[in-house]
Amino acid sequence: MASVRFQGISKIYQKDILALAKFDLEVRDGEFLVLVGPSGCGKSTTLRILAGLEEPTMGEVFIDDRNVTDINPQDRDIAMVFQNYALYPHMTVYDNMAFSLKMRRMPADKIDQNVKETAEILGISDYLQRKPRELSGGQRQRVALGRAIVRHPAVFLFDEPLSNLDAKLRVQMRNELSQLHTKLESTMIYVTHDQAEAMTLGERIVVLKDGYIQQIATPLDLYDNPDNSFVAGFIGSPSMNFLNIELENGAIHAGDIVLENASYAGIPDGEYLFGIRPEDIHPSEGSRLSGGIEVVETLGNENIIYMKFNGKQFAARCGPKVKAVPGETFGFSMDLGRSHLFSIDGINMKVNAT
Ligand code: ADP
């Protein structure tokens, strides 16, 4: 177990590709921290720098209080689990798990004990003599996890480990990983582009975009109090709805629509980006707010209604009994007490911060 600290890390690859800029982050001992962001935002680079597989252009990395910036990967006491499992195909599950311990010259009886204990935790004791090709995707991913766990590393790194699994298995493995974290009490840093995975796994989440940290917060705080419009749009599915508006004396003007809202009083007049989540839009027949229904997703427990409102696509999350037909109009109200207002360059004005 260990804490991790990135201090002023920047990474520029050849040809001036900025992968990571001014990255400062402290991961607590025993924390499950998730790095999330779109493809190419610098997530893998962050993990690779911590693992020692990539050198930072600037800055330093600490594990506990030890500066490991110039330390070899194998001397950092870190285990990494990848999306493609990276198992040795010709070795049995047992040998795959025992391999790194043998390399460390651990006595055979101690290796045996570690492998068997770990296999028990992961529910793969029955497969120890099989080869990776004789296992399902989920079982292979458990072996890959097992290979990391047997070493009792100070820090676990996960690089999109579940993205090769089908949707149902992914949810199951997500639960298992959470339980594993509780059981092992280890520091885990997990990279994903999937915001749902980030929300369900992370104790804290770091949202990255173009190499820059956008926000570091707990899942609920990210959802309720996003610092900027990028985080607001990235976290949550369907995404937050956005509308360009003009604020005049605390009233919202968007096209022909004028909305009064007490919480906007005192905000300077001007152009803003207005944001509202799909669940804060409610059906309201005969309302002066309405949109042309484009698509209705019937999910059984809820209906997601996509409509055109003021030239933008708006999503409303409604109960399963709400009737909506594409081509017809959807009258709605908005819970403005839960809306967000962003400056034109995306900064949340925090008018309704909780
Ligand atoms: P992510 O994991 O979020 O998808 P990466 O950390 O892999 O992002 O990449 C961040 C940026 O750095 C991207 O623009 C990517 O193209 C670039 N990049 C990553 N690795 C290399 C490399 N070895 N050489 C040059 N550019 C790279």
List the main descriptive attributes of the protein structure presented here.
24% helix; alpha+beta; elongated; 354 residues; 5-stranded antiparallel sheet; 6-stranded mixed sheet; binds adenosine-5'-diphosphate
Explain what this protein looks like in three dimensions.
- The protein is an alpha+beta fold and 354 residues long.
- It contains eight helices and 20 strands.
- The strands form four sheets. A six-stranded mixed beta sheet has the order 6-7-8-3-9-10, with helices on both faces. Strands 13-12-11-14-20 form a five-stranded antiparallel beta sheet.
- A hairpin with a 3-residue loop joins β1 (4-13) and β2.
- α2 (93-103) packs across α3 (108-122), α2 packs parallel to α4 and α3 crosses α4 (137-149).
- The chain is elongated.
- It starts with a strand and ends in a 12-residue tail after the last strand.
- The model has no long low-confidence stretch (mean pLDDT 93).
- Residues 13, 17, 19, 37, 39-45 line the site of adenosine-5'-diphosphate (ADP).
